[in-house]
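Severity: low
Component: inverse-folding endpoint
Summary: output formatting inconsistent between runs
Steps to reproduce: submit the following structure tokens with default settings.
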């Protein structure tokens, strides 16, 4: 798949005339906000989990959505209990003295994904905003929530902690049920209390031990059945119950996820993204009980938020969060993809390894990123509905890059590119031609040293 500069010239010119440059001022996002309109769910993506500009721009957009459009919550691709600690801090309810402390539970690999300087600034701003502008619904303040399902044992601890406070006998029954997860293998260092959930998945897949599916489901059902008994102290009790219920639901989903992860990528991917979509729907229902038409902004990777039906993911049987939200909520959803051509990124060489500051290679020919590079603008927003006749050429299938927490430039085409039709994937896009690595709160020696560009020393 190679570019044809002559054939693409009309499209490049149309992009250049239609794109809205970004200069770093508040008015930059006027066109983006026109694209968002009256949507109640705004999806803000990222082409990597380690790019400074993506975090910074998502924070800028989100602040304005909160200030001008009255958005009620931020939901991110993070573990529910870890995000709840941040949620309590920004609501002025926790014991953390500052934003860095509130991010203290985000230490599981990849820690830099949420423990970085841009997140530190945003969490601090959110606390200041809530302190100065208490919302008009029961609990007050914009909330911060996680959508992901990796926190099996942390969620168990949160359910048990809740039940210890409200019903010790129910807590005893829950410990008996959840004790099932502690009977698998030996504990490994995972950054979480209890057993390694991947070991659980491995043992159950091989039939070495029975699954804990029944116990996880039974605990969730009991908690939900007794909902009315626990909701007797008003809105605060309702919020605490909601947190416990979501953690119990997460245990159920995580049990299934770790049990399927050794059976194939498609099954575990679909389960994970379906859980995130269900969690967001639960959050909307919870907020709708307090305000009329709650609004939420979502931060996650492009691969989760861009409609999977417009990519080769669909051919492999994969769905994603963006697709499910469009199917469930239609025009109430607006999705914005984020792209870059070259620069640096915070990423690891392999899963569980130290974060490094890596060089992002110039985008491959035949990719959307290479096309946007030819536009000649350092940063711009594009509402794909504004292109007119030239939009037809943008619908032609091209490569799109995705860098997660692992980046392997040596196998970039196979590891980090997939085929897509961008106008069907996102409603709009933000392109930053050159980007730099987001700064982790804990910088490793590998990150400090960084990689030299392939052109060194001729580029100096």
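Observed output (run 2 of 3):
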């Amino acid at each position: 798949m190679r570019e044809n500069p002559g054939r693409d010239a009309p499209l490049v010119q149309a992009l250049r005339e239609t794109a809205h440059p970004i200069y770093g001022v508040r008015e930059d996002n006027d066109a983006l906000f026109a694209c968002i309109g009256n949507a109640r769910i705004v999806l803000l993506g990222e082409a990597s989990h380690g790019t400074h500009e993506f975090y910074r721009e998502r924070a800028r957009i989100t602040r304005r959505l909160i200030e001008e459009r009255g958005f009620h919550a931020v939901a991110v691709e993070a573990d529910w209990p870890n995000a709840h600690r941040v949620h309590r801090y920004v609501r002025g309810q926790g014991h953390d003295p500052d934003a860095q402390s509130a991010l203290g539970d985000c230490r599981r690999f990849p820690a830099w994904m949420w423990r970085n300087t841009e997140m530190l600034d945003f969490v601090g701003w959110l606390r200041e905003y809530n302190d100065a502008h208490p919302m008009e619904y029961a609990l007050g303040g914009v909330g911060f929530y996680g959508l992901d399902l990796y926190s099996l044992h942390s969620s168990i601890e949160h359910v048990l902690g809740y039940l210890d406070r409200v019903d010790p006998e129910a807590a005893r029954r829950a410990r008996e049920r959840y004790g099932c997860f502690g009977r698998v293998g030996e504990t490994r260092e995972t950054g979480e209390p209890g057993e390694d959930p991947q070991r659980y998945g491995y043992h159950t897949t091989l039939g070495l031990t029975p699954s804990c599916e029944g116990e996880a489901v039974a605990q969730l059902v009991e908690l939900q059945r007794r909902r009315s008994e626990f909701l007797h102290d008003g809105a605060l009790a309702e919020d605490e119950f909601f947190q416990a219920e979501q953690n119990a639901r997460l245990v159920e989903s995580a049990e299934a996820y770790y049990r399927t992860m050794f059976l194939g990528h498609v099954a575990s991917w679909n389960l994970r993204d379906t859980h995130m979509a269900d969690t967001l729907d639960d959050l909307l229902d919870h907020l709708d009980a307090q305000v009329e038409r709650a609004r939420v902004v979502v931060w996650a990777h492009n691969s989760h938020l861009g409609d999977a039906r417009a990519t080769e993911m669909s051919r492999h049987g994969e769905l994603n969060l963006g697709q499910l939200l469009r199917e469930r909520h239609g025009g109430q959803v607006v999705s914005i993809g984020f792209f870059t051509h070259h620069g640096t990124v915070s990423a690891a060489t392999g899963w569980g390894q130290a974060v490094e500051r890596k060089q992002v290679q110039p985008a491959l020919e035949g990719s959307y990123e290479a096309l946007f590079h030819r536009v000649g603008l350092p940063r711009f927003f594009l509402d794909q509905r504004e292109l007119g006749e030239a939009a037809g050429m943008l619908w032609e299938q091209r490569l799109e890059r995705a860098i997660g927490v692992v980046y392997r430039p040596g196998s970039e085409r196979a590891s980090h590119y997939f085929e897509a039709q961008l106008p069907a994937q996102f409603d709009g896009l933000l392109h930053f031609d050159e980007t730099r690595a987001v700064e982790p709160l804990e910088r490793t020696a590998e990150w400090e040293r960084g990689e030299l560009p392939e052109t060194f020393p001729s580029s100096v």
